[in-house]
Amino acid sequence: KVLENVQFQDQVAAADIVIANKTDLCTPEQVDRFDHWVAELQPEKTAVFHTRKGRLESAWLDGETALSEVSTPHAHHHHASSEASPVPDIQDEPWQRVSNCGQGHFSVGWRVHPDTVFSETALLALSLDSRFVRFKAVAQTSDGWRTINMADGALSVSECEPRELSRLEVISEQSLDVDELDASLRESIEKTGLSC
Fold it and tell me: How far is the C-alpha of 56 from the C-alpha of 50, rounded, in Å?
């Protein structure tokens, strides 16, 4: 089932905007189920849209958006009855790491203070690790803020507006040595105004 797929859940957790595509092919009940499902997502999405015949309005993607939290212990359990612990303030805890597993996938995510500057080259090299099925980041680099995505062997890099913090996540089908991965990410730091 799609909703139980961990990669799908990670993508939804990282999205600011959710779009129901080709609703002209759906029954009213299917559209209602989608609307009910998306209304229960936590954190709440910036915007939710429906398309007909796959027509996406480019204006929907404009405006102030920020990459949502990388995986948290509750990212894959948005129907959990207990409340998720509050995320620590990035000023108080400038290097935050969370790992998760489920549905045969493992993920590790970081929230990093924006004063920490990564080497873009080092992040790109890390993103190509053969163990990863997905690498995603919005990070402050020595060349400016970048969005980096690697999925299905395809790597994309683009400039982006400065954010309140850097966010990175890896997803793998095999268990990962989280401490080794954390050390590799720390080695990609070029400079920081903080002690992480």
Answer: 9
